[in-house]
Structures are given as C-alpha cells and as structure tokens.
From TrEMBL:
Principal location class: cytoplasm
EC code: 2.7.1.24
Name by which UniProt lists this protein: Dephospho-CoA kinase
Binding site for ATP: 11-16
Sequence similarity: Belongs to the CoaE family.
Length: 198
C-alpha cells in the first residue's frame, strides 16, 4: 500500500481535494482532526500536556481547552515547538495503526498542513502539494473564517512554510486556482497511484 501525503498552506483547499479522493473510495487521514482526538484520548499525551501547560489545559469535563493552549503557544515559537514535539509522535503512531487497518487498499492519503514541519513526510511514499495564489487564499479565508481579519490571515500564512518550498519538495502539485479544473487533476493522480501499486 502506498502512503500519500497531501499538504499546502491555509486556504489552498486541501479539504476540497481530499473530498474528491474520498469520493473515489480512498481512505483519508485528517491529521488535524486526529491530533485533537489523540490529545483527548491518549492518556500518556494528556499527562504530558498537563505537566507542561498546567491544569487549565483541560476543562472540568475533561475536554482539551484549545483556546487556552493556543494562547500559550501562538506567539511563542519555543512553546509551539514544544507542543508539536509532544503531539506529533503520538499522531505518527496513530497514523501507522490507522494505515495498517486499510492494508487492503492500493493507497491511503494523509492530509497534514504541517507535513514537513512535523516530519510526517518521512512516513510517506509521495507528497501532493495543493497550490492556490495568495489573493485567492485570502479571499476564501475571509469568507470561511469570518472572525479573522486579513491581517490575521497574513500572520498565519507568514508562519507557515512557503508555497515555493512545499512545491519544490513534493512529487505532485494540484492547482486549486479557480483556473484549472480540480477533478481531472485528482483523477489523473488517482490512476497513477492505482497503477503504481498494481
């Protein structure tokens, strides 16, 4: 089974691309959603988070207080790196177990915004980068995340690895630029992955 990573900066439309793959019957691992699940359910990680960020890390009902954790790490690169160093190894293990449960498939997809920063790319056979021009990304995000300003969005984008770097490190690029139709690009990759593993 091939393990295909899919990445790209905020607002490029990774979720839209993975939905097309999912409609083709490809299992998709959403790293962001699974990281939240692991932070809630992995007891070893819960204890690490509590000892690092204090009792406020979880609410009285045992839910992760994401607002509190974000406030601790967002403008502190060292604390953010520390959080990632705690969470990412558990997510890597979770992905391996998940992938093993889909061993009957030709390939699986792992969607991760921080594919390179988390070193998740090392688990992958190939990487797809989804690309969209900056102005399109900002427009999409202003519509989607109505609580964010353009300055907020630009600050997030500046913290992420550049699109040029992501493209240079990927084997495949999907252009989600409102110019090139998305579905034919995904279908072509789907056929390539099936053929590579047949």
């Amino acid at each position: 089974m091939l393990k295909i990573g899919i990445t790209g900066g905020i607002g490029v439309g990774k979720t839209m691309v993975t939905r097309v793959f999912a409609l083709l019957g490809v299992p998709v691992y959403d790293s962001d959603a699974r990281a939240k699940w692991v932070m809630h359910h992995n007891e070893a990680l819960r204890q690490e988070l509590l000892s690092t960020y204090g009792p406020e890390t979880f609410t009285e009902t045992g839910e992760l207080d994401r607002v509190y954790v974000a406030s601790q790490v967002f403008n502190n690169p060292q604390k953010l790196a520390q959080l990632n160093s705690l969470v990412h190894p558990h997510v890597r293990n979770d992905f391996e177990a998940w992938a093993a449960s889909h061993a009957d498939k030709a390939y699986v997809l792992k969607e991760a915004a921080l594919m390179y920063e988390s070193e998740a790319w090392k688990q992958m056979d190939q990487i797809i980068t989804v690309f969209a021009p900056l102005e399109i990304r900002i427009k999409r995000l202003l519509l989607r995340d109505t609580h964010r300003t353009e300055a907020d969005i630009k600050a997030i984008i500046e913290k992420q690895l550049s699109e040029e770097e992501k493209i240079s490190r990927a084997q495949h690029v999907v252009y989600n630029d409102d110019q090139q139709p998305l579905i034919p690009q995904v279908l072509k990759l789907h056929e390539q992955f099936l053929t590579a593993n047949s």
